Each structure stands twice: as structure tokens, then as C-alpha cells.
Amino acid sequence: MPRPPAPRGRIGRPPVTSRAQILAAARRLIDQDGWEKLTIRRLAAELGIGATTLYHHIRDKEDLLVLLLDQHVGQLERPELPSAPKDRIIAAATAMHDALAAWPWAAEVLSADGFVGLLDESALWMVEAIVAAAGDHGCTQAEAVHVFRSLWYYTVGEVLVRARSPHRRSDDRRPAHRKTFDAARVPHLAAIGEQWPALAGQDTYRDGLRAFVDGLLAQATGPST
Amino acid sequence: MPRPPAPRGRIGRPPVTSRAQILAAARRLIDQDGWEKLTIRRLAAELGIGATTLYHHIRDKEDLLVLLLDQHVGQLERPELPSAPKDRIIAAATAMHDALAAWPWAAEVLSADGFVGLLDESALWMVEAIVAAAGDHGCTQAEAVHVFRSLWYYTVGEVLVRARSPHRRSDDRRPAHRKTFDAARVPHLAAIGEQWPALAGQDTYRDGLRAFVDGLLAQATGPST
DNA sequence: CCCCCTTTAGGAACATGTTCCGAAAGTAGC
DNA sequence: GCTACTTTCGGAACATGTTCCTAAAGGGGG
Predict the structure, then answer these.
(1) Which ranges in chain A are annotated with CATH 1.10.357.10?
(2) Transcription regulation as a keyword (chains A, B) (predicted)?
(3) Which residues of chain B (56-95) touch nucleic strand C at CB < 7 A?
(4) Measuring CA to CA, which residue among B55, B98, B63, B49 is closest to residue B78?
(5) Cβ <8 Å between A146 and B208
(6) Boundaries of CATH 1.10.10.60 in chain B?
(7) d(Cα A1, Cα A49) in Å, to the nearest integer?
(8) Which of A7, A202, B69, B208 has the smallest set of CB atoms within 10 Å of its CB?
(9) For residue A138, how far is the Cα from the chain centroid?
(10) Measuring CA to CA, which residue among A124, A153, A138 is closest to residue A212?
(11) What average pLDDT does this structure show over B8-31?
(12) pLDDT-based confidence at B179, cuts 50/70/90?
């Protein structure tokens, strides 16, 4: 624990930990035991400090997770964006999706107003890219924001639902899927029957995204171009 | 506490509470003090029983919330569905959305595979309506399920994000929205600037839904019709 | 009327996130 | 070296969801 030699002129008891060290330790724990095992007390133990001391460096656990997400998104490298507005939107939205999907615990933090409200500058390029591309396509400012928000909702929903679906512990008695549908009440679902889990398990984010972008752009620009 | 007079021939210690009573008490508490105040111990107190006794009637708190959501959705009256497939999908999806949006705490339970995995028959008509309408429009079974899932993601995302946005307590120092964007890095966001909160606050679920349905149906049926 | 079996009740205890508040460890002025 | 002030630390304590385990309350057979 090489604590820095008193940053000169500083007054008061010297900190024993920094936010950076906390984030590093948190990542270490997550990489090691999975993010479900990340608890305040465990994290404090990893740092060799008291649990409540953490609260002098982070507001609360959600804050910690947002910070971690920030860090993660910030380290992502920014892909080449296609020139066609529609493709650019799809590329940026996919980048958002992939960034979130890779971190299941992001689900605990998502929501709020997402990137825009919580995350720092490092993630904003995705928002900017979508809004800019929508503008290039002819959307007004309001329409462009609408495009972004709609895609954000879709993306968050996809990530959240898929993140929590395997949430069911193996010893959970709750049936993951009802075996039989009442053919009289819900004939189509009954016809699908056993195939539902297989169909619902497929990754169709990109297909849905394309459809959504098509619909949004068609709706936005009215009779022009 | 008029406990039923021993359901005849029953063996073992008589129950002092039923699941129905628990649900009723839970609703009472929610209506009274808001759903954030619904805690296991408070609920038990309301029923005049021990806290752990509840766990003999419900699996866990999430289970309780799902049960309440079931009950709520089941009491909804089923609207007239338009005949045009596209309009029917929009009507059914809107019904899902409104059912969820009315119960902010639904957000805590959503996810999983949503209606299909968790809720009981009373909510399935919405799923059935969407899948059936997609079929009427010419979608294959797989495409119809894709349509439903995509709309489900969008709907869940919208409900979750909007439910948690006012989540910020008033005494929360975390800024709800950064005041200034770096015009060099994110010019479009900077141009929007102050107007973002106003734009993001608008309810655009229906517009987005329409766009999404248009896109999904156009994508699904390929060269036919 | 007593003992066995079944079913439910509920207290003790634990893990977790979090708040409170007094103790600890420095610097600055004297 | 002592006192005052500032900043950080961290234990005690609390609310909550949950699991464990033992006690309570019945019926049935003898």
C-alpha cells in the first residue's frame, strides 16, 4: 500500500484509498468471481478498508456500477461509421447494444435516461452519431431525438430482458415456459407451442433494429426526398 | 380473523392466512403508502402474522409482485381490436404498454420472458393478438414471434427507462442532465443543448410503436402481397 | 385420552446496502 | 510541543429480503 507522500500542502487526514483504486479492485473482483459476488463489504475487504469507508468515495452501489460502466464504454474503440445515414445509425446502435450486452450487470444500472443522463463524454459519441445521422437523413432536431430515444428503449429492453432470462436459477421450480397453451383461447400460441423457447431464444436484435430504423426514418421525413 | 372452519377432512395445522388475503393486503398497502413502502415485514404486520410466514405462501418478493401484476392485468378489460392487422398489433401493444406503465413497480418484475414466461393466461390475449395479427398480415410463425418479441423489448425498455427517470430523489446531487455539451466532440448534442430534457420528456411511445410495426411488417413479408 | 403424523407458524440469524457519529491522522499557527 | 482545524476512517446500528429450524395445531388410530 504505497500511499502517496502527502500531496504537499494538503490538510486533513490523508486518504488511504482513491476512487481509482476502488474501481480497479471492483473490476478485479468482477473478473474473478462474477459480478453477482461484488458486494460492498467484499470490495472493502479486497481493499483492506472498512466497508463504510467506501461511501466516502462513491455515492452508492449504483454509482459504482455507473462508474464501472463508464470506464468500460470509454475503453471501447470507436468503430468506423458507414457514410450512409441509415447504416450509421445501425452501426452506432449496435455499438451501444454490444457494449451493454457484454456487461450483464449493466442491466442493474440502465434505465434512467441512459447514456445521456448518466454516462460521461466517452459514451456520447454513440448518441451523437445517431442524432447526427438522423439529421443527415432529413430529420428535424426533435425527430432525431425521437429516433435516438426509440432505439434506446428497444436496446435497453432487449438487453434487460435477455439478461434476466437466464436469471432463473437451475433449482428454481418456476417453469421457464408453460408447456401447453389453451388452444381455445390462444390458438396461435398453442400452434407454436413447444417451439416458442427456441424462437424466443434467437438473437434477433439486428433484424429488429433494421426494421425499426427503416420505420423511424420513413416516418420522420414525411414527403421529402 | 374469521378463519374458515377447517375445510373438512384436512389434516395438519390450519393455515392462518391464504395467498388471496396476502395479495389483498399487499394491494391495500400499495394503494395506501405507495409501492416503495411495500416490504415483507410491513406486509406481515398488516396481516398480523410473522414475517417469515409469508414465505410459506409466496416464493419470494418477486413472486409476490408477479402475482399482483397478474391480478392487475387480469382485471383489465379487453378492448375491441381493430380488424386491420397492423392496427390490431398497435392496439394490443398499446394495451400491454398501458397496463405496465400504470404500475411503476412492474418495472421491478419485467424482463424475464415477460408475459409469456411469467404471467398467467389473463395476459396472454395480448401476445396472441399480436402473433395472430402478424400471421394475418402474412408473417410466418417465426416472423410473428419476432414481431412480438421486438415490440416487447421496445415496450419494456420504454416502461423501464421512464419509470426510473424520476427515480432520482430531489435531494440527489447527481445532475439529471449535463448542462453543456462539448461542441467540438458532439456538435449536434451541443446544438440541442437545453432542449434535450424537454424533448426526452415527451411521450412518444405510440409514434415509435407505429414506426416499428411498419418496419417489422415491411421486413417480414418479403416480396409477397 | 394419548401418541404419531402432517402441515403451518414464526423466531433467530444472516447477508447486504446504507446512515450516523465519534475517533484518527494530518497541517497550520503559535 | 501544543492547540485548533480539517479531512478521512470505520464501527455500531438499522432496514430489508431470506433461510433454517423448532414449536404449534390439528386429525386419526389405539
Answers:
(1) 79-219
(2) yes
(3) 56-57
(4) B98
(5) yes
(6) 19-73
(7) 11
(8) A7
(9) 28
(10) A153
(11) 93
(12) low
pLDDT at residue number A162: 87
Is A219 an interface residue toward B (CB < 8 Å)? yes
Strand D bases within 7 angstroms of protein beta carbons: 5-12, 15-20, 23-28
pLDDT tens-digit map of B193-205? 889 889 988 999 9
Q: What percent of chain A has pLDDT over 70?
A: 84
**Interatomic distance B1 CA / D18 C1' (Å):** 27
CB < 7 A to strand C: residues 56-95, chain A: 60-62
How do residues A16-33 score in pLDDT, each as one tens digit?
A: 999 999 999 999 999 999
Instruction: Give CATH for domain B79-219.
Output: 1.10.357.10
CA nearest B220 in A: which residue?
A211
Instruction: Name which CATH class applies to B19-73.
Output: mainly alpha
When pLDDT is averaged across residues B100-118 and rounded to a whole number, the result is 75
